[in-house]
Amino acid sequence: MTVVCLPGDGIGPEVMLEARRVLERLAPGVELEERLFGAAAIRAGGDPLPAETLAACRAAQAVLKGPIGDPAFDAADVRPEQGLLRLRKELAVYANLRPARRDGVDLLIVRELTGGLYFGARGTRPDGVVFDTCEYHPSEVERIARRGFELAFGRRRRLTSVDKANVLETSRLWRRVVNEIAPDYPDVEVEHMLVDNAAMQLASAPERFDVVLTENMFGDILSDLVAAVTGGLGVAPSASLGDAGPGLFEPVHGSAPDIAGRGVANPAAMLRSTALLLQHGLSRPAEARALETAVDEALIRAPTPDLGGTATTRTFGDAVLAAL
After folding, report:
1. Side by side, which strands form the sheet with 31-34?
2. Active site residues
């Protein structure tokens, strides 16, 4: 079995190193294969997702990716983020899972990842009007909704479907499809919530939610809101899954070039993403739970500077290994 590691940019190689140490402890029979991706790949060959990197990812059991991004490419024609969108599309990972746990809050955002506004038609008309189109096919909605129902069934069996059905035609399709398949999951309680109300409720009473199902752009925004409520992006993991082939596991924070190379980056989000990889990518739920618990202990015993502590990236990793 192979896990492809994409260290990425900025602090990516530093937090990836801690993830590799943990994987070597918890999954010693798995081969770890490192490949170029993001700004580092652009500098090396002009492409953020080189063909050899994509081929390795396709052949792997799972892909563990570090943060990408480099200010030098923010206004360039070729940017690191383009490689990420291509990778998600090529691996057909349409279900983005964003768990959030803290002080009585235990929720999971299930975000559709390969459709909607980010992938619809876009351009500029002759009169100067610029447009982006939000598009969904019923089959795209059905597959992500079924994934959300299945995940809810394995948790507390409550699903909140978030849309803007009072305004958007795509949201009316979304709500209709969710209602059509809900009878297939009679043990899961379903509610619909408009996205503006969902944002308010997630900020003020996140403990009321179990699984939150939503489309691409709403999920992008709401998942960062939830991360802020439950500890910040520095501790927020994610998993992107399809129906076949490898999943993509990554922290949701950025590459933080301002602290790169100083050894003070918080690897918690990367390690929690590694726990998701163990659970969903390598089918090792016991090891995943052990790692989650170890990270929780390290956050208390060895907090990094972003959490008010003095631990380095390495000493945080040491604390996780000691807990394991």
Report:
1. 31-34, 2-6, 62-65, 247-251, 237-241, 95-102, 105-112, 211-214, 158-163, 189-194
2. 118, 164, 196, 220, 224
